[in-house]
Amino acid sequence: MFRSLLLCTHGTDGAKQAEHLVFAGLYPKNPEISVTVLTIIDQDWQEMTGDDWLNSSHTHTTFLDHVQQQMQEENEEDWQRIREQYPLAREASFIGAVGPIEETIAARARQRKCDLIVIGPHRESKRLFNLQMEKGLRSRINTITFHKILPCPLLVAPLNIDAE
Protein backbone atom coordinates (compact mmCIF):
# COMPACT_ATOMS: atom_id res chain seq x y z
CA MET A 1 0.00 0.00 0.00
CA PHE A 2 2.71 2.49 1.00
CA ARG A 3 6.04 2.67 -0.82
CA SER A 4 7.80 5.43 1.08
CA LEU A 5 7.34 6.48 4.69
CA LEU A 6 8.71 9.51 6.56
CA LEU A 7 9.15 8.92 10.30
CA CYS A 8 9.60 12.15 12.25
CA THR A 9 11.35 11.75 15.58
CA HIS A 10 13.27 13.85 18.05
CA GLY A 11 13.91 11.49 20.95
CA THR A 12 10.97 12.31 23.23
CA ASP A 13 8.67 9.64 24.65
CA GLY A 14 5.97 10.49 22.10
CA ALA A 15 8.44 10.26 19.23
CA LYS A 16 9.56 6.87 20.54
CA GLN A 17 5.94 5.72 20.22
CA ALA A 18 6.09 6.62 16.52
CA GLU A 19 9.42 4.78 16.16
CA HIS A 20 7.91 1.68 17.73
CA LEU A 21 4.83 1.87 15.51
CA VAL A 22 7.02 1.99 12.39
CA PHE A 23 9.85 -0.41 13.25
CA ALA A 24 7.92 -2.96 15.33
CA GLY A 25 4.60 -2.74 13.51
CA LEU A 26 4.46 -1.34 9.99
CA TYR A 27 7.92 -2.10 8.63
CA PRO A 28 8.16 -5.81 9.62
CA LYS A 29 4.82 -6.45 7.90
CA ASN A 30 5.83 -4.42 4.82
CA PRO A 31 9.61 -4.75 4.34
CA GLU A 32 9.41 -3.29 0.85
CA ILE A 33 8.63 0.15 2.30
CA SER A 34 11.41 2.71 2.08
CA VAL A 35 11.71 4.36 5.52
CA THR A 36 13.30 7.74 6.09
CA VAL A 37 13.88 8.89 9.67
CA LEU A 38 13.82 12.68 9.93
CA THR A 39 14.99 14.75 12.88
CA ILE A 40 14.37 18.48 12.59
CA ILE A 41 16.02 21.13 14.68
CA ASP A 42 13.69 24.12 14.73
CA GLN A 43 15.36 27.16 13.22
CA ASP A 44 14.34 29.22 16.26
CA TRP A 45 17.45 28.08 18.14
CA GLN A 46 19.45 30.42 15.89
CA GLU A 47 17.57 33.38 17.34
CA MET A 48 19.08 32.92 20.80
CA THR A 49 20.35 36.19 22.20
CA GLY A 50 22.00 37.39 25.36
CA ASP A 51 24.75 39.67 26.57
CA ASP A 52 27.44 37.25 25.44
CA TRP A 53 26.35 37.82 21.81
CA LEU A 54 27.56 41.39 22.09
CA ASN A 55 31.21 40.28 22.28
CA SER A 56 31.82 40.01 18.54
CA SER A 57 30.40 38.50 15.40
CA HIS A 58 33.21 35.94 15.49
CA THR A 59 32.20 34.83 19.00
CA HIS A 60 28.57 34.64 17.87
CA THR A 61 29.44 32.54 14.79
CA THR A 62 31.76 30.27 16.74
CA PHE A 63 29.07 29.63 19.33
CA LEU A 64 26.40 28.93 16.69
CA ASP A 65 28.75 26.45 15.00
CA HIS A 66 29.40 24.77 18.34
CA VAL A 67 25.68 24.47 19.15
CA GLN A 68 24.88 23.10 15.70
CA GLN A 69 27.66 20.51 16.00
CA GLN A 70 26.40 19.52 19.46
CA MET A 71 22.85 19.06 18.16
CA GLN A 72 24.06 16.94 15.24
CA GLU A 73 26.01 14.71 17.65
CA GLU A 74 22.88 14.28 19.76
CA ASN A 75 20.92 13.35 16.61
CA GLU A 76 23.56 10.75 15.72
CA GLU A 77 23.33 9.26 19.23
CA ASP A 78 19.55 9.07 18.98
CA TRP A 79 19.73 7.46 15.54
CA GLN A 80 22.18 4.90 16.91
CA ARG A 81 19.72 4.13 19.73
CA ILE A 82 17.02 3.47 17.11
CA ARG A 83 19.31 1.19 15.07
CA GLU A 84 20.24 -0.79 18.17
CA GLN A 85 16.68 -1.10 19.45
CA TYR A 86 15.19 -1.99 16.05
CA PRO A 87 17.57 -3.99 13.82
CA LEU A 88 15.30 -3.32 10.80
CA ALA A 89 16.09 0.39 11.21
CA ARG A 90 19.55 -0.26 9.80
CA GLU A 91 17.88 -0.34 6.38
CA ALA A 92 16.35 3.12 6.87
CA SER A 93 17.77 6.45 5.74
CA PHE A 94 18.48 8.94 8.53
CA ILE A 95 18.46 12.66 7.80
CA GLY A 96 18.61 15.80 9.88
CA ALA A 97 17.45 19.27 8.95
CA VAL A 98 17.27 22.76 10.42
CA GLY A 99 14.18 24.76 9.59
CA PRO A 100 10.57 25.46 10.43
CA ILE A 101 9.08 22.16 11.63
CA GLU A 102 5.91 21.96 9.54
CA GLU A 103 7.40 23.23 6.30
CA THR A 104 10.48 21.02 6.63
CA ILE A 105 8.42 17.87 7.16
CA ALA A 106 6.21 18.67 4.18
CA ALA A 107 9.18 19.54 1.95
CA ARG A 108 11.11 16.37 2.84
CA ALA A 109 8.00 14.23 2.30
CA ARG A 110 7.55 15.79 -1.16
CA GLN A 111 11.26 15.42 -2.02
CA ARG A 112 11.27 11.75 -1.08
CA LYS A 113 7.85 11.11 -2.66
CA CYS A 114 6.48 9.76 0.61
CA ASP A 115 3.08 8.12 0.79
CA LEU A 116 2.83 8.45 4.57
CA ILE A 117 4.19 10.65 7.37
CA VAL A 118 4.34 9.19 10.91
CA ILE A 119 4.68 11.37 14.00
CA GLY A 120 4.30 10.83 17.72
CA PRO A 121 1.23 11.80 19.74
CA HIS A 122 0.64 15.20 21.29
CA ARG A 123 2.39 15.45 24.59
CA GLU A 124 1.62 17.66 27.52
CA SER A 125 4.32 20.10 28.46
CA LYS A 126 6.13 19.08 31.63
CA ARG A 127 8.09 22.30 31.79
CA LEU A 128 5.96 24.40 34.13
CA PHE A 129 7.26 23.96 37.68
CA ASN A 130 9.28 20.92 36.63
CA LEU A 131 13.04 21.20 36.74
CA GLN A 132 13.64 17.69 35.41
CA MET A 133 14.74 17.78 31.78
CA GLU A 134 13.11 15.45 29.27
CA LYS A 135 15.25 13.82 26.57
CA GLY A 136 14.73 15.17 23.08
CA LEU A 137 13.92 18.44 21.39
CA ARG A 138 11.07 20.58 22.68
CA SER A 139 9.71 21.82 19.36
CA ARG A 140 6.06 21.23 18.64
CA ILE A 141 4.03 21.10 15.46
CA ASN A 142 1.43 23.76 14.76
CA THR A 143 -1.29 21.38 13.60
CA ILE A 144 -3.35 23.99 11.77
CA THR A 145 -0.38 25.11 9.69
CA PHE A 146 0.79 21.53 9.20
CA HIS A 147 -2.52 20.11 8.02
CA LYS A 148 -2.83 22.79 5.34
CA ILE A 149 0.48 21.79 3.71
CA LEU A 150 0.49 18.01 4.12
CA PRO A 151 1.56 16.36 0.84
CA CYS A 152 0.35 12.88 1.91
CA PRO A 153 -1.56 11.13 4.72
CA LEU A 154 -0.44 11.66 8.30
CA LEU A 155 -0.43 8.86 10.89
CA VAL A 156 -0.18 9.88 14.53
CA ALA A 157 1.09 7.07 16.76
CA PRO A 158 -1.21 6.19 19.65
CA LEU A 159 -0.13 7.55 23.02
CA ASN A 160 0.26 4.21 24.77
CA ILE A 161 1.41 1.49 22.43
CA ASP A 162 3.65 -1.19 23.84
CA ALA A 163 7.17 0.20 23.51
CA GLU A 164 9.83 -2.42 24.04
CATH class wording: Alpha Beta
CATH superfamily: HUPs
Q: So what's the oligomer here? A: single chain
Structural class: alpha/beta
Quickly give the CATH architecture.
Answer: 3-Layer(aba) Sandwich
What would the average pLDDT be, to the nearest integer? 84
Q: What is the number of helices?
A: 4
Question: How do the helices and strands follow one another from N- to C-terminus?
Answer: EHEHEHEHE
Kindly describe this structure:
By secondary structure, the chain is of the alpha/beta class. Helix content is 39%, strand content 17%. It has helices spanning 13-29, 57-85, 101-111, 143-149, and strands at residues 4-8, 34-42, 93-99, 116-119, 154-156. The longest helix has 29 residues, at 57-85. The mean pLDDT is 84.
Break the fold down into its secondary structure elements and pairings:
Elements: E1 4-8, H1 13-29, E2 34-42, H2 57-85, E3 93-99, H3 101-111, E4 116-119, H4 143-149, E5 154-156
Parallel strand pairs: 1-2, 1-4, 2-3, 4-5
Task: Tell me briefly what this model is.
This protein has a single domain (4-156), classed as 3-Layer(aba) Sandwich (Rossmann fold). Helices cover 39% and strands 17% of the residues.
Which labels suit this protein?
164 residues, alpha/beta, Rossmann fold, five-stranded parallel β-sheet, 39% helix
